[in-house]
Protein 1
Amino acid sequence: MTSLSRLPGLILIAFLSLSPLKGQETAPASHSPIQVKDATADSASKKRIEQIYEAVGGFEGISIEVQSGVVTLSGEVSNTKVREEAKSIAERTDGVVLTINRVTEVAAIDHQLAPAFSKLKEMGRTAILKLPLFGIAIVLILVFWIIARLFNRYDWWLDRFHYSSLAKQLTKRIIRLAIILIGFVLALEILDATAIVGAILGAAGLAGLALGFAFKNIVENYLAGILLSTRNPFEIGDAVEIDGKSGKVARLTSRDTVLVTFDGNHLRIPNGIVMNSVLLNFSRNPLRRFDFSVGVSTDYNLSEAKKLGLKTLAQNPAVLEDPAPMAVIDSLGDSSVAIKFFAWVDQRNHDFMKGRSESIRLIKEAFDDAGIEMPEPIYRINLRGGELPEAPLPQNTAPPHQPRHDEPKVKAADISVDRAIDEQIKDERKGSDEENLLGNGS
């Protein structure tokens, strides 16, 4: 009876002994222990740790002491990583209860450089083993370099695309670099070092971005030079006006456009400005129109004055018959009427400025011979501040000019094309070594 009464208590005690205590946690081992077969004594643990240190390498300066399962590490190492690895290995060794790490770091140069020298030795041994592969890779790069040179030298196949000089040079450079890059990648593939390609491309991308910001204007002018040489908005010797600057084109370089101004000075305009500015080419169309105004008295028949002026312009060899000259009444002044004359000149045969000058001279003489007055402006000045009596306007009492038979005839003016600037452009091209992207010119 007594045994039966104690049975529930025994069952409860057994249940509590089998179940985990409240708050007790089972922490899994973070690392699997390093097994030491049949070695639980301190000497076996010390020997095992020494063997591991010797196998791994880099722990030569560490001394080990083991007593009652407590490992004490002392000595000097080159860096913190070696110190922590030494402690980790000792802690994971079977039979070790506690690890005391008294290893210190030293800043000695020989300790700091020891890993680097070891790495260099390993790389040297690897390089010696791969010497045959290095030879094959170098030969492959040389073959592709020779192929690139042949493509760069024999560029007749680019002529069919009618590229400009700069665009042609740029195309050849891109193809040459692409061929060399292919050979370089294949050589790295043979050496099993293709990971270097990614590093090189990444570095090249960053370097290109930095250089792009640093040399923004240079790159902009270079690209503008490519576009200008492709579009050909002007040729050598063309009279142009760019950003308010006038002159004749001497050359187009990869950075700027060189003009020889009409007074003989050299003017360099960056290609970026040329590309983004209004460009006026006076030579692209050989036919160019000039105009000038003549004041005629209000008393004269304007229709007769226009007819006489057009007849006189037709006598100028520089003025073209087609398109024919034209005259319009431009404005009405206080004492005269302005008649504006227009005429065309072929710049290939006659000079524009000389043709205009000769036309003005002929009109002036024709109007003088016809008695057409070209009055000057008349001003009235009151010096006393009061009103002056009306004064009669001066009358032209002089008789019209009549040419005499004994007067010498005016010698015909020179209206030939002025080649002075063109000769200076030729001298400039001969005396400069800069590459001209417009070619040799005419």
Protein 2
Amino acid sequence: MKKLLNAGLLITSLFGYLAWGKEQHAFLFQAEAEVLAKAVVDPMAVMHPFVVLPLLGQLILVVTLFQKEPSRWLSFLGMGCIGVIMAMLLLIGVMGMKVGIALSTVPFLVVGFFVVKANRRRV
């Protein structure tokens, strides 16, 4: 179940929605493809916390998918790294009254809630 939830975090993180300027918009998976293509040519051009942290978080979640029992700390770390950009998108969506941006974070937040619930320590 934990692997499925981590895969859900990974997938839902790709559907965050960005919109800026006039008629410029992209889902995170589209923006990531552009960033990764640019990183091959000029790696220093993509060195920014809002780029590196979510990619690191996704990489960590991929690692948990190959573990026999996914590490709760790696799950939380991956979720936290991706959560930085998703929280920023939620904040932008709410403050700018951009419903599409705010709603694009909801699936990640819902799956994140279930990840926390599944990984909390039983006492």
Protein 3
Amino acid sequence: MENVNLIGPQLLLMAVGGLLLICDAFAGLLGARRWMAWYVVGTPGLALLGGLGSLLWAVAHAATDTRGSAFFDTYVLDDFSLFFAVLFAGVVIAVVLFSVDYLRGNRHQAEYYALVLASAAGLMFLAGARDLIAIFVALELTSICQFILAGFLKDDRSSEAGIKYLLLGAVAAALTLYGMALLFGLSGSTSLEGIARAAAEADDQRLGFVLASVLLAAGLGFKMAIVPFQMWVPDVYQGAPTPVTGYLSVGSKAAGFAVAARVFVEGLGQGAIAPDWATMFAVLSVLSMTLGNVVALVQNDIKRLLGYSSIAQAGYFLIGLAAVAAGEPQVELGLGGLLFFAASYAFTNLGAFACVIAISQRIRSDSIADYTGMARRSPLLALALTLCLVSLTGIPPTAGFVAKLYIFNAAVQADLVWLAIAGVINSVISAYYYLRIVLNMYVGEPVSPEPVRPTPLLAVATAAAVAGLLVLGVFPFPVIDAAEAAARAFS
């Protein structure tokens, strides 16, 4: 039972997902009117309760200092995995709120919410897995659910997104598995602890560990959406249901960096190869920031623009990972910066996608040109989207400014000044396409005088996200302390 308690937040999500499917199977026996009531109220309501229950369970673990390893040390509940458990539970709640009106009338809502909950459980397992087999199983659990979610609408664009995501995901899984097999062959162990001992002592096998690092970076780079493994992002972001796009941009990306930190810092951070993978991630960081920002400059679709923005933001994430091993040991500062960046990015990007859902559903378009004059049609939505875009740029007093300041400082402290300078330059580039949208919303003439009003649930989700990014921008210290405590789990 102690093991079960440690993975309680994940088990609750999976149990509620199963309950959704069971209730859906019997809902048709209740009659047409009650069946429709189930889809309108019962399905999202039960999914929301699952997300809230998982969040409360994770918070209870944090409040009672419940820590420990489970299932023969293949999973660990520490401050690091708890940080991400709280983050992913919050993301689930937001995605459910986004989806209620988006899916209204859809006959497959139970399957949709069950897939979201099961995928989130996989994300939580990824953050705490300490064994290669457990990591791979968790990775496949979340990936398969996300492949289906990307193609959920079943129209041409959504089907294309699902197939592209599936095919490229299969290649990424193969690369990940090859890297894991090589690590097992070199260390004789699938546990990260055993791999760390082998990596620290095997100077004569350095080339093998470097090759394994490259294969793992390639496989996990798909989840992180970093260059050159980002080719799926624009098409999948554009074709997938918008709530799913928001989920992928925050949950999937954060989990990719969580498992990368677990593997590279805990498993490969003690040996002579640490500077090698740190340099690799530093180079990939610059490539991701530059390509994402430059290509975003010419985008006319808001979801594709946010897709390329997501690639650029992944480059900023990588700065924290590169700072961990470069120069002097920077575990607490580098990983702390990465974790705080993940929290601020979650509020910012979820808020942006909430605004996109509210506006695009009303105007029936994702074209940036149709956002012209939006400040006159919906002043509050335009203000909320402006604050999210300002935070993505990294301008005070938003969370994005503090997050970039924190992560650039980690790079400077790790003697990666050139990487911090590259990040600042790319932030300046990104200001052009982010603030271009803001300028259009406030200066241009609206294409229609019809007002745009969000639904109550979307309004609540948007307000919560915007409040979060402002609070983190003005008073970030509690989350910074939590991020640094989580980073110390690797010390």
Protein 4
Amino acid sequence: MKDRHSVQRLYRCLFAVLAMPDRLLDLKEREWDDLLTVARSARLFSRLAAVTQSHGFMHQVPARVAGHMTAALRLAAHRQQKMLWELQHLERALREIQMPILALKGMAYLIADLTVAKGRIFTDVDLLVPRAGLAEVEATLQAGGWRSEALNTYDEHYYRQWMHEIPPLQHPDRGIEVDIHHTLSPLTSRIKVDPTPLFEAAVSVKGYRVQVPAPADMVLHSAIHLFYGGEFEQGLRDLSDLDFLMREFATRDSGFWQALMTRAEALNLERPLFYALRYAYHLVGTPIPTGMLAKTRPFGPGRTALKAMDVLLGAALVSIAPGARTMGARSLLWVRSHWLRMPPGLLLRHLLRKLGGHRKQSAQ
């Protein structure tokens, strides 16, 4: 078992290679074993394979590694094709709906042909629609065969009254989860997002009825998802998403960083942006201008809370074989996410309800 500092060095090597793929050519046999171990642990192996292929290095890596990478790319391509096939069915079903519809996260990256999509595996289709049209969209999809899992009265109420999305839908012929959002964070969350500006700034994509968020909005949504969603099992992959997004957008547009700051202020999302910049810079090595780090620092938490976040995120994200320390950190961050998404009274009732349901299931 490698110690924490050795693991951190391995992850720094992984992200350095993702940013500068020519470093692959200098790796020794033992270093390849370590690199592949951390890439798989971080769920970034297929991304590493995509970077290797896109830079023409596949024939220069060890043959056994190239074989694994080729298989990973085939799997990623197959998964992405399934997602695109589902999107085609969704667009066909919603063709008569007269309202803006945005693809989010992995699907947005894929149809916008962003670098972050290369080799990225995702398992559901996320769409954003205006809340006023939510019932029409849901009814239309249900008429087309999509169904949600049967929920008890409490869980149904939880989704309908408090969450930022309706219960997930699936078509029985394909089994792909479809999440229909009407905003980017739970309605009870301390982070509240008015989706209207997102629709106004949306970008059209040739060949698709759905649109994608503007670059700054993609980054901010990714930050909300990572730092407020409470799910850190693939958190390092999500942090790598932020890294790839910011690198690409900054390369395309010299005014991106200022536009990102302006957008965060307009949407009251300065705190998620602070976390995104801080941890992308410190854990992944994203080349963020020093001025941006300084501008967002006043929007971060106090010194003690920030130190706690540094420790918890470091433990939750940077681990090869998750142990008690990693699982403890992820559990605390999960509790934090629920604390931020619900007022105390509602949170207590929710946790007691869930705990009671878990005990009932265990007793059966």
